[in-house]
């Protein structure tokens, strides 16, 4: 954990209501950190429906492999998450560690090993001594309680400067359900320190395949639209669990993603995912400003997103934001390098509401003072219109500061 | 120009012999900088064969458009380069500026406008007042002299901390010819300050289409294998001119790229391009270390290069190098995110001669002390073997330091 909290941290945390059917406990196993919790156990007393999306890395961590193998089974009884060690690039030892953890969790909770899910975040390449916490999972299960969300969020932090929680309510067929989520990540994607993990749970009764479709659709404009440093983790994990406890209130189980009763739930889930994703960006390593990049008028939505990510990942754009410099020439550069169709002479660029460029050149009414005023804000909206089609995308990032270099240059040694 | 010279600057400059048939002059036109030259005129008294490669940006500068249009003509009589303003994203005004410059240069030298080549480097989006130097091109032509390479290199600098020159000799059919080149660029690619420009000239007698094939083949493992910050410029320009003066010594004109007489010339040209490209990396903004990333054992050469660039462009790898941290976990991350085939469990990684990882986990003989010693050097070789095939590539980059952030956060405002 970093010494000073991000200036973009939320001013307060929401009250996180319990999710019926889910209990949690944390422990301080001393995996890497001293004097803090570093293990989280989530227990579903009845099998919960489960969905997950994972890193696209070709070198995923052992826990990612483990979760992917269990997911087709569709049921979850326990989740074990540790911080301080990613259990990535740890070879056979890594697989042994996931097996030991799964066996211990299954034994503690009384379930099958394929009902266990695992995630680890921290240093890459160090063997993880799962024995440090495997032995305490039984006690954790005994102690686990439903009202524990903020503690859970704290136990999975690495270089995060604040815990990330979010909650939403939604009605399904007139029955109110709750969705809670936690996340960690400070470079969205920074493999030996800030790997993005997020766990979301609801008491709604939804079949696993529907849950998976909701999650796969929801991740695109949320977690897959934020970037801190363009570095994709070996361990990115986002999981969604549905305990089904709301069935006791008369909620009819949802078995089709087309079910109209899902509309409000889908919207609430997507809002929660976006809330958590933006909290991750706002805790980006060294971040002082959040940048919201919107591309409109692209040939397709995919082209718009690729251009938006090119802007959001450009070190030159991000350092300009850090310097409060309305340097729209670098935005032009980033559009040009994205490789998607662009017509220089149709391009228009805004910082906030200030149009700085139009028709392939500086806006005739350009005001340096007005543009600079936008750059002094904490939240910098950048919009690019390509004037070619209807494709549209928004992504979020943070500025690139000397603190990012310091955090990442000084971390391991 | 930056106040302090890069610690990676060459200790001395080579003597640059004149290229017969080429004269140069510089002027201080006050485009942006005070008290320094900012315009370069190159004059070929007889039409020179010409070849060029340019940025792949979809938003290229006006001079890039201009050069591309003239290149099929195949002959050059004049080159005008200015620093301080990129004439990029300047709309109709930008085209008017290139037309004025070309007309003035053609008139000064006595040639057709399609025998003129142009390049500009500096701020994007500011209209370029070509009138500032168009009027002095006549005087510059009168004053131009052959022995002027170091001055030429200085006139095109922006945030470069040292001028970049290189020279090579080669025999073609027993006749010795000279190749000279200059380059600028400090972020290889940093659009409003460090755009990469390079001009290479030889007295060899080589047909334009052969020259183009040599240049197009030569740029891949040299200028297209260096990266400072992954940001592709609107203005990248590399041109090669052949005056043909060596014909007077009996050099038979080369009209086929398959001509065996080209072997030595090709090797010398490629060595010169690599020399200049590495000088650009070594002057990378804020650079204190050069990183040479070699990927072997990939499925194909293209896959190897993509993985190597993923490593070289990773902010987390680059900050680790800045921090002298042998953080090979970040190299694993960068391999994984490249999207090319990789098998975690066959991966091996070396820093210098120290193997840090093998068979998908930390090397059993890993020595933190030995790896750290490598990281303290100025030149850090990183090698990754994928164990899949014969594909191989090397790219070069520099570290990412707080100075990079300072230079790029403070530049324009």
From TrEMBL, chains A, B:
Site location (Cleavage): 194-195
Reactions accelerated catalytically: N(2)-acetyl-L-ornithine + L-glutamate = N-acetyl-L-glutamate + L-ornithine; L-glutamate + acetyl-CoA = N-acetyl-L-glutamate + CoA + H(+)
Matching CDD domains: OAT (cd02152)
Keywords: Acyltransferase, Amino-acid biosynthesis, Arginine biosynthesis, Autocatalytic cleavage, Cytoplasm, Multifunctional enzyme, Transferase
UniProt key word Chaperone: no
Active site positions, chain numbering: 195
Binding site for substrate: 158, 184, 195, 285, 408, 413
Pfam name, any one: ArgJ
Superkingdom to which the source organism belongs: Bacteria
Site (Involved in the stabilization of negative charge on the oxyanion by the formation of the oxyanion hole): 121-122
GO biological process, alphabetically ordered: L-arginine biosynthetic process; ornithine biosynthetic process
Function description: Catalyzes two activities which are involved in the cyclic version of arginine biosynthesis: the synthesis of N-acetylglutamate from glutamate and acetyl-CoA as the acetyl donor, and of ornithine by transacetylation between N(2)-acetylornithine and glutamate.
Protein's UniProt name: Arginine biosynthesis bifunctional protein ArgJ
Gene: argJ
């Amino acid at each position: 954990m970093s010494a000073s909290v991000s200036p973009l941290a939320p001013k307060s945390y929401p009250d996180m209501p319990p999710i019926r059917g889910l209990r949690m406990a944390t422990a301080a196993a001393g995996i890497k950190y001293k004097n803090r919790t570093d293990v989280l156990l989530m227990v579903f007393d009845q099998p919960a429906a489960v969905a997950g999306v994972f890193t696209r890395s070709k070198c995923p961590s052992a826990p990612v492999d483990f979760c992917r193998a269990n997911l087709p089974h569709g049921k979850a009884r326990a989740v074990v998450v540790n911080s301080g060690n990613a259990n990535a690039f740890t070879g056979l030892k890594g697989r042994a560690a996931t097996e030991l953890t799964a066996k211990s969790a299954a034994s503690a909770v009384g379930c099958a090993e394929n009902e266990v899910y695992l995630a680890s975040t921290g240093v890459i390449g160090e063997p993880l001594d799962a024995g440090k916490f495997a032995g305490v999972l039984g006690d954790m299960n005994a102690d686990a309680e439903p009202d524990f969300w903020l503690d859970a969020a704290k136990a999975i932090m690495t270089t995060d400067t604040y815990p990330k929680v979010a909650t939403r309510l939604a009605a399904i067929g007139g029955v109110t359900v709750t969705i809670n989520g936690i996340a960690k990540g400070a470079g969205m994607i920074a493999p030996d320190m800030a790997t993005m993990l997020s766990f979301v749970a609801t008491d709604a009764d939804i079949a696993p395949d529907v849950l998976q479709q909701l999650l796969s659709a929801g991740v695109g404009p949320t977690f897959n639209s934020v970037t801190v440093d363009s570095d994709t983790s070996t361990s990115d994990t986002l999981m969604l669990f549905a305990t089904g406890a709301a069935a006791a209130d008369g909620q009819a189980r949802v078995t089709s993603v087309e079910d109209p009763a899902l509309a409000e739930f889908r919207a609430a889930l997507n809002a929660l995912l976006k809330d958590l994703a933006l909290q991750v960006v706002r805790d980006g390593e060294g971040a002082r400003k959040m940048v919201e990049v919107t591309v409109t008028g692209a040939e397709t939505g995919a082209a718009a997103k690729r251009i938006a990510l090119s802007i959001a990942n450009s070190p030159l754009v991000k350092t300009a934001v850090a310097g409060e410099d309305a340097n729209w020439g670098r935005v032009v550069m980033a559009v040009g390098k994205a490789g998607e169709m662009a017509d220089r002479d149709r391009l228009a660029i805004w910082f906030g509401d200030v149009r700085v460029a139009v028709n392939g050149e500086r806006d005739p009414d350009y005001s340096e003072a007005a543009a600079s005023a936008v750059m002094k804000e904490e939240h910098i909206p950048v919009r690019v219109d390509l004037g070619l089609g209807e494709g549209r995308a928004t992504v979020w990032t943070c500025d690139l500061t000397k603190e990012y270099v310091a955090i990442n240059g000084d971390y391991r040694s």
